[in-house]
Fold each of these.
Amino acid sequence: MLLYSSTYLTANAIDTMSSTAQNQPASTTTSGLAKFGAISFVNLNLALYKDSQFTKMFGTIAPRPLPPASYALLALRDSLTIFASFNLPPKVASMLPQSVEDHFSRRSVAQFATPALIQILNTPLHLLGLDLYNRNSPTPARDRLRKVRLDWPATSLARMCRVLPAFGLGATVNHKMRANMMNDFDRARTASIDQNT
């Protein structure tokens, strides 16, 4: 819970600071590099700690420190998920046909699709990172890649199911709640300015 609440708190703080700095309505969101960097910094530190603990608890060998290569692969995996969850949805939503709006918000469709679909690409990173931990003896790359290839489909599906509540539903609800709260703030600020003029 700490991981996701910290991630969304950071995203909301960056959006608020960005809208304030650019003299935009408070409900404005950003998808720029600053948002990616800040969210990645917070999320990666917490997620890598969590992953290192889970790897030790559920690994197939006696607990040991996570190898640097595993950390790097898991960090890249999480960076891709963050990018697909916070930076891509607004861009993808604008590319979807207007007819999507007949059934669902384009933003919501993009918000559910991008974090789920990126799991197809980042699951091999996840599996290789775990394999480097679990098989720390010299193992031919071909054997490691065979293991990744065998586990890829089922693990991708499981990871999609895991990210949908966190970054599909969670981000959609967060976006709507933040927009409503910030629209109320903007209305109150406008009313206050009108009273003082």
Amino acid sequence: MQGLNQLPNSFYPHVGSITRMGRSIERAEYLPASNQVQLSWKNSYTDAIFQNKTYDYAIIGVPFSKVRSWRFPNT
């Protein structure tokens, strides 16, 4: 199978024990105070509240049509 899953799958043998695959992320926010990224998702489309977790790094496979509308921090 080819597609956007190939990028995260290539890292999986090295970081599989500390990696969460297959989660549909709805928000990604850079936190400059801690130099980390906070990812947010809903476990079900009916959930009213986002679940979130903060990470040092995130590898995300996203179509370019979505990425071009993202806002990135000024660096």
Amino acid sequence: MILRRHRPGRQLRSLLELFAPRRECGRGLHGSVKSPPVPPPIPFVPDVQTFLKVIGRSSSQHASKFPTWEALFSLSSAQLREVGLEPPRARRYILRWRDKYRKGEFGVGGDLTEIVDGAAEVKILEVPVPIRPGSDGKLASGTLTSSPGKKKVVVNVKPGTAEPPVPLEEVKPVNQMKIRDGHVISGPYVSLVKGTGGTVARITAQEGMWEHKRGRKIDGGERRRAEVRAKRRAREKAEA
């Protein structure tokens, strides 16, 4: 008995060719994708050196790889590898913070606008509290630390000035800043100004203030933890 191999008909082959993926289409689409625009510097991070400084993980040592602000936000991962930005972990970390910066996801000081010589000054001020609907125009009652119809917030002011550059009704509190004991500014990387009773503080760009801390392996990490702990118990049992 002779067995013959079944061959698909012409219509079936046409259907297979119709739905088969075509590489040239993928290449054409990849070439048409435009790179995202370069975001402008913010007052707290005006240049490449400051950006690499605040994101931490010793990224400042790679400042020479980025001659301009545009290069920082336009070089691809392959181009960074070509200019010698190693190890890959450092390259991925800078690229991740670059994307976060584009989205406006900043760390401490990212919302500060009044910067003089790299330092920002924040101050506790009383601002009006908006009248709630249905309150018949009554102001919020006062407390031991605030006046009626007002609340205390930490705002950014020009160094040496008493008021912000915008009306008190329009000021925005500084992110991650709190008021402790009703009159003392509290927050990460703040330095209280002497003689102000804690109502005025300064914030400057510091190494690693936006840093994402790396995890720490305990007993060899998740994959080797059981093995490491078993060997330790066996060693302790043998020494007992």
